[in-house]
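Board notes, transcribed. Complex of a protein with zinc ion.
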Amino acid sequence: MKSFSRRSLLGQSLRMAGAGAVGLPLVGAVEKGRPDGASSNERRLKVIVAGGHPDDPESGCGGTIARYTDLGHEVVAMYLTRGEAGIEGKSHEEAAKIRTAEALKACEILKARAVFAGQVNGATEVSAARYAEFRKLLESERPDLVFTHWPIDTHPDHRAISLLVYDAWLRAGKKYALYYFEVMSGSQTQQFWPSHYVDIIATEARKRAACFAHQSQNPAEWYSLHEEMNRFRGMECGRKYAEAFVRHVQSPDVSLPLAL
Ligand SMILES: [Zn+2]
């Protein structure tokens, strides 16, 4: 049997998915392009969702993460920090412990794997040394697709991870797809005009549960804003709930799996 590398299969399937298909699940697209019926492992995508803090991948992309993991793709939630400065009255060490546990619980709900990139909440750095450190971590995961914060954001930690990802993507030769997500649009993400949408009606309940795993962050106070965002993005693309993304215009010529 002729064997295909994961990357060549990916390119083939994504080109097919991009040829006018609407909401075409990647697995189906791959199967159509497979002459050899090889094992399912070969068509597993590695997806990285990089956020500033525990709760960012979940609130920005939780519905999309669950859709990918439901299809058998591997998703890593990559947290730049452990949210050390995010619990009033707690030391950095105490808060990091609590928020790490919350992130692990959220990842369990979404069937993602958590990776912590080792910076400190509220004191994130973007420098030559930090670029090199982050690039090494990201490349070690060999991603096919990376999602990160849209860079115009009022939170400095969100801007930091966005720039760290962008630099790693440039230095890797733009070889994987790069998409940006939004969080707390208006108060955090700003001037975000989506190019792609993912229908999350089937996974919205898990997204909510993953966000509510972050009890130290009082999700009851902010989740409703994400619910409104998801409803509004759904209206834009003709669905009930959706998450929205911007694809970097120089990203490899592939469509976002599951995208509308
Ligand atoms: Zn954040």
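Residues 92-110 form the longest helix (19 residues). The mean pLDDT is 86.
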